[in-house]
Amino acid sequence: MFYRVRTNQYKDFLSGFKTWDQKSHAKQWLLFPENIGNLLSIDETSLSNGELYTILTNKACKGKKGSILAIIAGTKTSDVIVVLKKTALKRRNLVTEITLDMAANMGLIAKNCFPNAIQVTDRFHVQKLALEALQEIRIKHRWQAIDSENNSIEQAKETKIKYTPTTLHNGDTIKQLLARSRHILYKNKSKWTENQNERAKFLFELYPDIEKAYGLAQELRNVFEKTTDKIYGISRLAKWHEKVNQSGFKSFNTISRTIQNPYQTILNYFDNRSTNMSAESFNAKIKAFRSQFRGVRNIEFFLFRLTNICLNFATPQVLDLIPKKPYSTT
């Protein structure tokens, strides 16, 4: 009861929430035209119950005050464009570059609202597709190993022979090897531990296709990490596409076709090596802010606190103004 009264006092009298100029439409959209900058990021995140919001941030502010340009409910292109166009075209024309993921709606929003901005597709989203394709191959083999083990156990029961699974020299069974190799395949070989090197050796010996797919995923990563020239980047990507075509992996061929559509915006990465990591980092901070207050009960008030504090919740003076629910001692 005391906590509820304290929270209501803060919200209704101390915080300034009642007189907030954006309160009437906060649940649908928030817009701060004064925070616009030359370099923007656009992404989507969930605030409460899986409901998505489109968020535009100013990269120059690095997640601090002045970072938020707009927070708009939903991801529907027309709804987002209507809100962003409330900002004067003169201001929007100041944007020279905007980073985004591979979603088509994000590209349409950027094109319609920021006509002078160069679009840069986040390279990490491209790499993520390759890693997911690699994991798909591993998971396929894992299900086959589980099915094979189940068949062996059933046969052993019928013949009344005790079933003993094949164990590798590192102590893994085949099923365990495939399950425990998940994190290895996300990492570069140079970052493997001694145990991971041994596990990868057994995995690649038993499943050469996983080794081949791992090589393709790492080659795509190296295109972005080790290429500084755009022309050289185009050449290396073309060679990667050719290797994918020759590999015979359906999932990798699907990726190859998928990245053909935003090909130019992917190549724009090599101009300034810009990524959407600032937006992803901002989203992570929002989630941390949300968990600190144990969820979102009132979206408008949550957004009010977010936009005012703007994620500087490490400052003791700010935290002292925000009531927190004490942990139960019972």
From TrEMBL:
Residues 40-305 form the Transposase IS204/IS1001/IS1096/IS1165 DDE domain. Pfam families: DDE_Tnp_ISL3 (PF01610). InterPro entries: Transpos_ISL3, Transposase_DDE. PANTHER family: TRANSPOSASE FOR INSERTION SEQUENCE ELEMENT IS1557. This is Transposase. It comes from Flavobacterium gillisiae.
